[in-house]
Amino acid sequence: MPSVREAAEAFSQKEGVSLNQFINVAVAERLAHLQHEDWLARRPKSDPSLLARALGALDKETGNRPDPGDELPEGYVSIRKNAPNRVPKARKRAV
C-alpha cells in the first residue's frame, strides 16, 4: 500500500537507514514477538509445589552476614513468614 510505504520511508529516513534495512528490522522485531508468544504458549506451566520448595530454599538461614549495603531495612518482615505455606498466585496475562 502506498501509504504504508510512505510512512516506512519517512521513518527509515528519520532513523538514517535504508528502507530495506528498516523493513528487515521491522520484520525481525515482529518475528521475535511471535516466537516469544509461541514459546510462552508451549512452555511448561508452573508447579505450585516446586515454587513452594524454591521459596523455602530462599528463606533458609545461611548464617552468613549480608555484604555491606545488602542488609534489609530495620523492622522488615517477609510476607511469606506472616502467611506460612502461602504461594503467590500466578499473574494472569492480558490477551
Structural overview:
- With 95 residues, this protein is an all-alpha fold.
- It folds into two domains: 2-42; 47-61 and 73-88, no CATH class.
- 57% of the residues lie in helices and 0% in strands.
- The protein is built from four helices and no strands.
- Helix 1 crosses helix 2.
- The longest helix has 24 residues, at 19-42.
- The chain is elongated and about 65 Å long.
- The two termini are 29 Å apart.
- The mean pLDDT is 86.
Helicity, as a percent range? 55-70%
Reading the helices and strands in chain order gives: HHHH
Q: Low-confidence segments, ≥5 residues, pLDDT <50?
A: none
Q: Structurally, how many domains make up the residues? A: 2
Instruction: Give the number of helices.
Output: 4
- Global Rg: 24 Å
How many E-type strands? 0
Largest sheet: none
Tell me, rounded to a whole number, the average pLDDT.
86
Calculate the terminal CA-CA distance, rounded to whole Å. Answer: 29 Å
